[in-house]
Amino acid sequence: MKLFLAEDDAVLADALLTRLGQLGFSVSHAADGLAAQQQLLAEPFDAVILDIGLPGLDGLQVLRNVRVHRPALPILLLTALDSMEDRVAGLDAGADDYLVKPFEFPELEARIRALLRRHRVADNVRDELHFGRLRLDRGGQRAWADQQALELSARELQLLDILMAHADRVVTKEQIAGELSGDGEEVGANAVEVYVHRLRKKLDGSGVGIRAMRGLGYLLARLEPGA
Prior knowledge:
- The protein is an alpha/beta fold.
- Helices cover 42% and strands 22% of the residues.
- The protein has eight helices and eleven strands.
- It has helices spanning 10-22, 33-42, 59-69, 84-92, 105-122, 154-165, 173-180, 189-202, and strands at 2-6, 26-30, 47-51, 75-79, 97-100, 128-131, 134-137, 142-145, 148-149, 208-213, 217-222.
- Strands 2-1-3-4-5 form a five-stranded parallel sheet, with helices on both faces.
- 26% of the residues are buried.
């Protein structure tokens, strides 16, 4: 999953890049507003962490400009300003969330996970996902291989949704754990391996498989006949 970080504080940016990378995110970085805006308009990202106090072009202006072309892109603002007026200005400019410096990393991580979950819920206007012979009805929580219904548990359906939403892209174990976690329940790496194993068995014969990419994560892939 690709994140974008716009932050001019070199120490904070380095710490965030390290921490987010450890969580399995691929993170691009810019230290000034103009560079941030150019990259956000040129490349697709799953979410953005945007500092307001950027040199060159301030974060609020970047936010307004990007919103014109990327209305659904999840954006979290970082700022040292904590007044009601500042928060309102940021949200009115199009931010999805707002975090005041200094902050603890676990709070930032939780807010990013919440942003991504909300984005996936909003994305459910696409009621069905298709990949190869697989079809997933998100609203009805059902899945088929061709016309054959798949008997999946709630967790297996969630995992299939994650993999199909990121089809043809590697999804890290940490990303899966983060998206499966919620409502006070933390899903660990070992649990992810169990869910992947169970789902892989239930996809047998569907023409679609889950490939383990060593050191990277999992990839939903079409299988060659006879594979």
